[in-house]
Amino acid sequence: MTPKQREDFLQQLLALHAELTGKAPMRIEPNRTDEARVGGDEDEQPLNEMMQTIASSRNRNTDGTLARVVKALGKLREDADSFGECEECGEEIPMGRLKAMPYAEFCVACQNNKDGPKGPVRRKHLTDYKG
Ligand SMILES: [Zn+2]
Q1: Phi and psi at residue 85, in whole multiples of 5°?
Q2: Within 10 Å of residue 3's Cβ, how many Cβ atoms?
Q3: What pLDDT score was predicted for residue 58?
Q4: φ, ψ for residue 92 (rounded to 5)?
Q5: Above pLDDT 90, what percent of the chain?
Q6: 8 CA distance to ligand 1 middle (Å)
Q7: What is the domain extent for residue 80?
Q8: Phi and psi dihedrals of 108, rounded to 5?
Q9: What are the protein's UniProt keywords (predicted)?
Q10: N or C: which end of the chain has fewer CB within 10 A?
């Protein structure tokens, strides 16, 4: 990976970090109160609710992503050479995957191994079966 590519990923991660921590333009605004209403803004309320719905579903989808973004930023700062390497097998994560997901921790093969064919497997503890 070239320093330029690293710089690009750093910028991308910083932008993601800003978005996930609510510093991006799309953040949840409190609903307006009727007291503050000025004539002619009736159309804004449904839009505001729609934006809240989008923002909250985005927040659900990004569970855990922020932590990975922070981790990736830490790598870039402290051990830039390790950025872009699979944490499992040490192979370089393909550039296309990193561009789509600069916070990726694993290569495609290792990610698939972790997820399994049907997604993450939740195993019961053996103790669950004891009387
Ligand atoms: Zn791997």
Answers
A1: -100, 140
A2: 8
A3: 58
A4: -70, 135
A5: 50
A6: 22
A7: 3-26+48-115
A8: -60, -45
A9: Metal-binding, Zinc, Zinc-finger
A10: C
Query: 92 C-alpha to center of ligand 1: Å?
Result: 8
**Å from CA of 104 to ligand 1 middle:** 11
Say how many Å lie between the CA of residue 2 and the centre of ligand 1: 21
Report if residue 40 sits inside a domain: no
Say if 32 falls within a structural domain: no
Q: Which of 3-12, 44-53, 61-70 is least confident?
A: 44-53
- CATH code (residue 66): 1.20.120.910
Record the tokens describing residue 48, joined without a space: 């505001």
* Across 123-130, average pLDDT: 61
Q: How long, in residues, is the chain?
A: 131
Q: Give the model's pLDDT for residue 100.
A: 94
Q: How far is the CA of 88 from the centre of ligand 1 (A)?
A: 5
CA proximity to 89, closest of 63, 113, 61: 113
Q: How far is the CA of 123 from the centre of ligand 1 (A)?
A: 23
Mean of the per-residue pLDDT values for the chain? 79
Indicate the pLDDT class of residue 121, thresholds 50, 70 and 90.
low
> What is the whole-number distance in angstroms between the Cα of residue 38 and the centre of ligand 1?
57
